[in-house]
Automatic annotation (TrEMBL):
InterPro entries: CetZ_C, Tubulin/FtsZ-like_C. Keywords: GTP-binding, Nucleotide-binding. Residues 1-94 form the Tubulin-like CetZ C-terminal domain. It comes from the Archaea. It holds the Pfam family CetZ_C. GO terms for molecular function: GTP binding. Signal peptide: none annotated. This is Tubulin.
Length: 124
């Protein structure tokens, strides 16, 4: 069970992150009830506790009688070191700066369209 928790944590996260930055976590073992060992689930939970440095890791099982394989699900919360989020924040900052530049330029260009330099009389 510990190896399943390790694989779920280190190799198959939906959002790659630094596991040690998590505040809390949950480990759930799934599969046929006869293959779910409470000690194994506890060892997997303890391993995740050691990896995160958090004492707030919960563990449990979810027996599935119609399945032939055993699996582990890991949920982390309060994760602070996520490279993908950092990249998205950088892109958002660039987009905001670009939008501000475009808006400033369009206002200047609009003003230059209205400024006739006294060459054309206003119609209204």
């Amino acid at each position: 069970m510990t190896s399943l928790v390790r694989k779920a944590t280190l190799g198959r996260l939906t959002l790659p992150c630094d596991v040690s930055s998590a505040d809390r976590g949950l480990v759930v073992a799934t599969g046929p009830a006869e293959h779910l060992n409470r000690k194994g689930v506890e060892r997997g939970r303890q391993w995740l506790e050691d990896e995160t440095g958090s004492m707030e890791i919960r563990g449990g099982d979810y027996p599935l009688s119609d399945r032939d394989e055993v699996g582990a699900i890991v949920l982390l919360s309060g994760v602070t070191d996520v490279p993908r989020v950092d990249q998205l924040q950088e892109v958002a900052i660039e987009a905001q700066e670009t939008a501000e530049t475009v808006q400033a330029n369009s206002q200047d260009e609009f003003a230059s369209l209205l400024d006739t330099g006294g060459e054309i009389d206003a119609l209204f």
